[in-house]
Amino acid sequence: MTQSATQFIQRMLQTHPQSGQSPFEMSALVECISACFECAQVCTSCADACLGETEHLSHLAHCIRLNSDCADICDTTGRILIRQTQPELSVIRAQVQSCLAACKACGDECKQHAEKMNMKHCELCAESCRRCEQACQALLNGMQA
Amino acid sequence: MTQSATQFIQRMLQTHPQSGQSPFEMSALVECISACFECAQVCTSCADACLGETEHLSHLAHCIRLNSDCADICDTTGRILIRQTQPELSVIRAQVQSCLAACKACGDECKQHAEKMNMKHCELCAESCRRCEQACQALLNGMQA
Amino acid sequence: MTQSATQFIQRMLQTHPQSGQSPFEMSALVECISACFECAQVCTSCADACLGETEHLSHLAHCIRLNSDCADICDTTGRILIRQTQPELSVIRAQVQSCLAACKACGDECKQHAEKMNMKHCELCAESCRRCEQACQALLNGMQA
Amino acid sequence: MTQSATQFIQRMLQTHPQSGQSPFEMSALVECISACFECAQVCTSCADACLGETEHLSHLAHCIRLNSDCADICDTTGRILIRQTQPELSVIRAQVQSCLAACKACGDECKQHAEKMNMKHCELCAESCRRCEQACQALLNGMQA
After folding, report:
1. Three-state secondary-structure class, residue B121
2. Contact, D7 vs D89, CB < 8 A?
3. Rounded CA gap, C103 and B16, in Å?
4. Closest Cα partner for B70 from B142, B140, B128?
5. Distance between CA atoms of D137 and A38, rounded to whole angstroms?
6. Where is the signal peptide (chains A, B, C, D) (predicted)?
7. Which chains touch A (3 or more CB pairs under 8 A)?
């Protein structure tokens, strides 16, 4: 229970009968899966926390929109990356690129609210989006090599 | 209840306070949303129907994998496209491109099982994937114009 | 493309190798699956339309919350019901009961906004929630018989 | 990055503007959210690992079915529990009960494959299902008190 999510995902992948055939470098893959699922959770939470900011709600509509899209995209990307059986690289690459775009857009928006309005949930969300954006970029870099 | 899913989605979009500001041509958008949600359902059903093909299961593992990915991607794409409040075009474009890739890969695989093994669920799934692939392409063509 | 969603789901179920073993009455099952997926789409759309109601946003926070929960629950319930391979009745029954509760709560809230604030997206959403609530109740009644 | 998922969820909830009004005991809530999201990931992974067990696939169809349902249910339950704005207790209670049922059914099935066939992914999945089942039960016990 006190292990990190990253370590748990690594253990799951190691038990997979076909994980030895993965086209990905294992540590980059584990980091990307972990970052996707964390970001999906944090964006779901940030959308809801913004919705609870009664006095600032009208300024946060764009943030809620981006959080909602990013949560759905990160969740789907995490599900696709965690699957190891007979992967289709064209699909995985396109979905990771979409995840990168969503995390960049959402992270940029949240960073503004963190800096200008001192919103702590947006600060945590911007951190998580940045981590996921970087993990997606690293995975894509490894695929193109 | 007897209206098509496409007509129902059109009615929802017409009630949206910001739908007049959509960057998309409305009939292409409605068709793409409808095709995404239909394909998500059909792929979920086809993955499960393949799982029930006890005698042919080992030949259908790749199909189940592609169905599962395509179901998740189409569902997320439909959710993102149905949202009209302050859309972020870079995110939408990337996700529609991923949906197009998933529908192409899954449709190609299902078409083979429909033709070679006479699998009726794969035949319906291939049709639905092709419809969604074309709707994604039409929407992307309209965005780039 | 002009067929109803209900008809399409029925065609998919008829191609399933194990659909003859379903513990459900087929027309009640098809109606419930169709209602779940429609309601998931409508609730996603209504949450976003409420978010776009700039002047009334603070009154719609509870509605957005209920729409978001109902969208997630209906989508999951539809996915579980459309699967026919070796169903587990205790799981299905509990998830359909949750869907019924979510549709009742969300439908009641949307009905108020439809009547008091003349919100057309909430009116359509209330209709869809009511249809899904009734379809879940009918399915549960059939299970207990 | 090395913090546990549980700690990260706790930090997010602490930044929520309405978290002080939660009807739940905070440590039980955090544990349940963390367990739901972990179980959703592990079940997605176990379904796919079972699909990759080429020689044993026909014995694992029921397990894949239960994994798929449990993954969807746990993901939805985690999303609903992480939201703090104006919660609807009837909906939350019903969804947590469904999650408990899904984790019990899936955990029991995976435990059998872990013991009889020495499947390591099923062993990890059974652990994660059991943790989530207990966390759901603890949360429900606290609600009824």
Report:
1. helix
2. no
3. 21
4. B128
5. 24
6. none
7. B, C, D
For residue C138, give both structure tokens: 């009918």
Q: What is the ipTM, given to two decimal places?
A: 0.96
Q: What are the chain D neighbours of C95 within 8 Å (beta carbons)?
A: 69, 73, 98, 101-102
Backbone angles phi, psi at B118, to 5 degrees: 55, 40
Would you give per-residue pLDDT tens digits along chain C (145 residues)?
346 788 889 999 999 999 888 889 999 999 999 999 999 999 999 999 999 999 999 999 999 999 999 999 999 999 999 999 999 999 999 999 999 999 999 999 999 999 999 999 999 999 999 999 999 999 999 986 5
Partners of residue B46 in chain C, C-beta under 8 Å:
12
Can you spell out the DSSP letters for C77-142? HHHHHH--SS--HHHHHHHHHHHHHHHHHHHHHHHHHHHHH--HHHHHHHHHHHHHHHHHHHHHHH
What span, in angstroms and rounded, lies between the C-alpha atoms of B109 and C9? 21
Chain B: give the shortest CA distance to residue D51, in Å. 6
Which chains form contacts with chain B, at 3 or more CB pairs under 8 Å? Answer: A, C, D
Architecture of the domain delimited by B24-142: Up-down Bundle (1.20)
3-state SS record for B122-142? HHHHHHHHHHHHHHHHHHHHH
> What's the whole-model pTM score?
0.97
For residue D38, give both structure tokens: 């972990």
φ, ψ for residue A17, nearest 5 deg: -65, -20
The dihedrals phi and psi of A3, each to the nearest 5 degrees, come to -70, 155
CA-to-CA distance for A82 and D98, rounded, in angstroms? 25
| Rounded Cα distance, A39 and A105, in Å | 13
Domains of chain C: which residue ranges?
24-142
Q: How far apart are CA A75 and CA C75, in angstroms?
A: 14
State CA A138 to chain mean position distance.
Answer: 13
Long-range contacts of D116-123 (CB under 8 A, 24+ apart): D117/D56, D117/D59, D119/A15, D119/D50, D119/D53, D119/D56, D120/A15, D121/A12, D121/A15, D121/A16, D121/D45, D121/D46, D121/D49, D121/D50, D122/D46, D122/D50, D122/D63, D123/A15
Q: How far is C46 from chain B (nearest CA, A)?
A: 8
